[in-house]
Amino acid sequence: MIPGSPATAGLRRQLTELGETTRTGALHVGGSPGGVLYLVAGRIAYAETPASPGLGDRLVASGRIAAATWQALLAEGRGAHRVGRLLLRDGAIGRNELALRVVAAIADATHELLQSAEAPVRFVPGERHWLGPVDGGDLGAPGHLTARRLRVGPGRNVAPAGHAPRPPNMTHSGCD
User: What is the CA radius of gyration of the chain?
Assistant: First the structure.
């Protein structure tokens, strides 16, 4: 896809507007491969597309979590939007590892979504992802920088030299 094409520009424009107005909800991206960007207070909290592995795929494929364990956690936490909290509560994964895997899933999914030849977008206010809130739902710098990369375009460095994005704060106070 050519950077700055109408489909990509529409996605970038919509993300910019949602970020500036600190909206929470899901930005559904049509086309092929299609996917969803979940925002909390204008920041990307999670992203998914069939074209890249999600959190569960990453955990199971790496051998970090057995497929049956993942399915049980997903079944228990999906409807209540608390799969992330269950992963932490049960000790299936640590906070830092979860943070890094979520950031990787966001980066890969947003990259794939920008490759769509046609990408109609539709925002659904208030729609949440099954991962659930992660310490207030703020992924911090990585989610924000991903949104900035989408606005700026491919191949441009958006972080000042020598400043790496910090991983999200993944505390799990208040878990069952």
Answer: 16
Distance in angstroms (rounded) separating the CA atoms of residues 171 and 157: 29
Cα(55)–Cα(104) distance, integer angstroms: 9
Spatial contact of 138 and 169, defined as CB atoms under 8 Å apart: yes
What pTM value is reported for the model? 0.72
Please report the sign of the dihedral spanned by the C-alpha atoms of residue 45, residue 73, residue 64, residue 53. Answer: negative
Is the separation of the CB atoms in 84 and 121 below 8 Å?
Answer: no
Cα separation, 64 vs 124, in Å, equals 33
- The C-alpha angle 74, 122, 10, rounded to 5 degrees, equals 120
Q: Which of 55, 7, 51, 57 is nearest to 33 (CA)?
A: 51
Q: List the one residue out of 46, 24, 30 whose CA is nearest residue 125.
A: 24
Tell me the C-alpha distance between 144 and 16, whole Å: 11
User: Tens of pLDDT along 103-143?
Assistant: 999 999 988 887 765 678 899 999 999 998 654 334 444 44
DSSP 98-135: HHHHHHHHHHHHHHHHTT-SS--EEEEET---TT--ST
Cis amide bond preceding 33, omega within 30: yes
